[in-house]
Amino acid sequence: MSELVRLTDITKVYQGGVTGALNGVSLAIEEGEFTAIMGPSGSGKSTLLNLVAGLDRPSSGSVTVAGSDLGRLSETGLARFRRDRIGFVFQFFHLLPNLTALENVLIPARLKSRVSAESAGRALMSRLGIGEVADRYPSRLSGGQQQRVAVARALINQPTLLLADEPTGALDTKSGDQVMALFAELHQEGQTIVLVTHDPKLATRYAARVISMLDGRVIDDARLETTERKPADVIRVRSEEPSR
User: Fold this and answer.
1) How many helices and strands in the chain, by DSSP H and E?
2) How many degrees, rounded to 5, is the angle at CA 75 between CA 22 and CA 42?
3) What DSSP designation does 60 have?
4) Which domains does the chain have, with CATH numbers?
5) What is the reported pTM?
6) Which of 76, 77, 72, 47 is closest to 62 using CA atoms?
7) What is the Rg, in whole angstroms, of the alpha carbon atoms belonging to the chain?
């Protein structure tokens, strides 16, 4: 597998240099990996995900995704990078209430022809098990259906990298399991996925690699060799940049 993401000595400081959200983080993610980033609130995991997505810039260090050094891109270049390379699934869906489910899915595909985009959108929604709700508005959808619409929206442009920030956090257990099973299926088909979660059971059940964060640092990096996720199958991997 080839390297898809590399973060080198990343720091992120907020509030006039007082609060450090990330402190010297270095790591690499390979194409085709399903990686979970785990940690408590305030550990820096969502900040890290936003940097990989090009939604924010580091205070220092470099972020390279699919061969692009994000620090060298203009805001217009970052927007184009996100459109072409990144699919992002949020915790709270972020669906526009005045658009149908299908219209929400098609928002990132606005540069495609309407006919081809709509055909692709309906096919994708059918594959995700929500084809029958394509013409409904979000208020008429369950939480699980809304999150599947959000996943379809993230996939409509066939992204190189799928990022998910606590995608099951607003769902009941059954709906959350369905969304995670969908991610597992996408991974089996070759999709690179980076998932942020605070739930260790979810991380170890579905991801092949679990990165643990605390106070803005990577404190553990574990690869799970088999789908059975037995403790004996876990290989500890030293972070590329030891905590200081």
Assistant:
1) 7, 11
2) 20
3) E
4) 3-236 (3.40.50.300)
5) 0.85
6) 72
7) 18
